[in-house]
Specification:
alpha/beta, binds the ligand Nc1ccn([C@H]2C[C@H](O)[C@@H](COP(=O)(O)O)O2)c(=O)n1, binds zinc ion
Length: 161
Amino acid sequence: MSDKRKDYITWDEYFMGVAILASMRSKDPNTQVGACIVSQDNKILSMGYNGFPMGCSDDEYPWSRDAEGLDSKYLYTTHSELNAILNYRGGCLEGATLYVTLFPCNECAKAIIQAGIKKLVYDSDKYADQTNVLASKRMLKSAGVEMIPYQRSERKITLNV
Ligand SMILES: Nc1ccn([C@H]2C[C@H](O)[C@@H](COP(=O)(O)O)O2)c(=O)n1
Ligand SMILES: [Zn+2]
């Protein structure tokens, strides 16, 4: 009988956990999103969270979701999924899996498809009714990207050791 630990975390818990941790870096006061891209042999390839592009200060650009025109955060934020794709320096993401804490929008779906990502594991789908998410699902389905809702476990994972 093996003495191996039995209560180790699953691959899904591990990679979604990394995505959740990445989301905690976001400065967005309303929604923090994290993404983690994983190879077919369970190696983490890249991570990202939503924020402004390099050189665009978190303290100078607006975080408002309601403001009009140039004062809206939506003009400036790069989504976590796109950041994870763009952060990858290793070459090809063909066949990779994306773990993300919020279902991707239509613009990120285009990038996911074009990057060759074949599987998407998502946690929240809080904007499921929005047109951009419906368009995203339509494109991901057409492109054969598998969409899998993350099965939250009962286990509480704490980071303080
Ligand atoms: N799949 C997604 C969806 C949204 N984001 C980012 C974009 C914004 O920074 C924030 C959403 O803000 P809200 O409209 O909820 O105030 O989340 C993303 O990175 N990935
Ligand atoms: Zn997006």
